[in-house]
Design a protein that fits this description.
Blueprint: H1 4-39, H2 45-52, E1 58-66, E2 73-81, H3 86-99, E3 115-121, E4 124-129, H4 132-135, H5 141-158, E5 164-169, E6 172-173, E7 187-188
Parallel strand pairs: 4-5
Antiparallel strand pairs: 1-2, 3-4, 5-6, 5-7
Length: 216
């Protein structure tokens, strides 16, 4: 029969063998994980998060501002965050127009103006503005034309299904902003107010006639 000392020695040897086996197994697993990572077989959690984060969706738009002399409209391309529906998209585009150009172009809407509401009816969009659009507007026939058609052209080029815009001020219909452009009916886009420089009814006006929408 084995002595107590021999049994203790055998038990210690078994424990040592078991421990060595565990260490060897962990070493194999670690090495496999290392080489798998080097080979791209798995993605660490940090990289999973990195891959799963998508870039925000953007929407390309075109805005119309006045040239540096305030005589005609010039288009400027812009990117805004994408929007889920037409109402929010129209509001976002008009608010971008209010904020002004990223270049030296002149805004066509006073920067204090706020969009109070947007309503659709067939091919017409009604945009309700705060009174700042009137009270903060500099006035003048050309300036008023550029405001109205800068808005109408911007909406038409970004939303082809919208053919005209009705402008309200604080929920109310108005005849005009400053007495020059007729707002009693919805205003369609009119791209004659781009280049060349606007000269109403003068030698530089290729039509030789007063532009559509002027007050009688």
């Amino acid at each position: 029969m084995a002595s107590g000392k021999q049994r203790q020695t055998e038990k210690s040897n078994q424990t040592l063998i078991w421990a060595l086996g565990v260490v060897t197994l962990l070493a194999v697993i670690g090495a496999a994980a290392f080489w798998a990572g080097k080979a791209g077989w798995f993605t660490p959690a940090s990289r999973v998060a990195e891959v799963s984060v998508e870039a925000p969706l953007v929407r390309e738009i075109i805005l119309y501002f006045a040239d540096s002399q305030g005589e005609f409209l010039i288009a400027e391309q812009r990117e805004i965050a994408d929007c889920p529906d037409n109402e929010q998209c129209v509001r976002a585009v008009v608010e971008a127009l209010i904020k002004g150009a990223h270049t030296d172009l002149i805004p066509v809407l006073p920067p204090q103006t706020r969009v109070l509401g947007v309503v659709f009816e067939d091919e017409t969009v009604t945009v309700d503005f705060s009174r700042d659009l009137v009270t903060r507007h500099p006035g003048g026939s050309v300036s008023e034309l550029l405001t109205v058609y800068g808005l109408a052209n911007t909406l038409a080029v970004n939303f082809p299904h919208l053919r005209q815009v009705r402008i309200l001020i604080a929920g109310q219909a108005v005849e005009s902003l400053k007495g020059h452009v007729d707002l009693r009916a919805p205003v369609p886009a009119d791209f004659r107010y781009g280049r060349p420089p606007l000269r109403i009814g003068g030698a530089d006006d290729p039509s030789g006639a007063s532009p559509q929408g002027r007050m009688p």
